[in-house]
Amino acid sequence: xxxxxxxxxxxxxxxxxxxxxxxxxxxxxxxxxxxxxxxxxxxxxxxxxxxxxxxxxxxxxxxxxxxxxxxxxxxxxxxxxxxxxxxxxxxxxxxxxxxxxxxxxxxxxxxxxxxxxxxxxxxxxxxxxxxxxxxxxxxxxxxxxxxxxxxxxxxxxxxxxxxxxxxxxxxxxxxxxxxxxxxxxxxxxxxxxxxxxxxxxxxxxxxxxxxxxx
Length: 214
Ligand code: SF4
Description:
Low-confidence stretches: none
Mean pLDDT: 93
Structural class: alpha/beta
Number of domains: 1
Bound molecules: iron/sulfur cluster
Number of strands: 8
């Protein structure tokens, strides 16, 4: 894909995030657009049609984030791609990473509810995955996000089929007010344990009903 055609909408670029996501000093690149419609979405602007701040190409982004190259190299940091759902921008991320310094640590914050082809394209570039699993119970997941979670679980299994992958994955397991219970959360944790996942971040979503369009 030519550079000019690989132009995507973003919500924003946030510099100098320390130990928030990824490792070292990181810059968060938040893409517009998502496959899900979570009821308490904290980034509802990434779902509304006009919720993006600007559009950008891979070369333009690289030029912008290069200002922190020395910080990235000194701390083992790099770029965290979030959103929205960054995996659906896999062609953009692929082009960006092919141009970026190979030492940069690349983190993907994803809900994994995307076509496998995106994950295949991203696999050579991503060092760490932060996965927002919601809840493994299909009914709870569908009520909360509007979609089926079969693709999430299939993608998780596929990722874990790669050597050493469990150490590169951190799964966020939320308590979702009015949608799951402590028992449901325990079941999700138990399921992840059977997959060999040990890095788990259990937390509680803030109740913040998103609008119908999001
Ligand atoms: S996965 Fe859910 S919470 Fe995250 S951006 Fe998409 S709709 Fe919002």
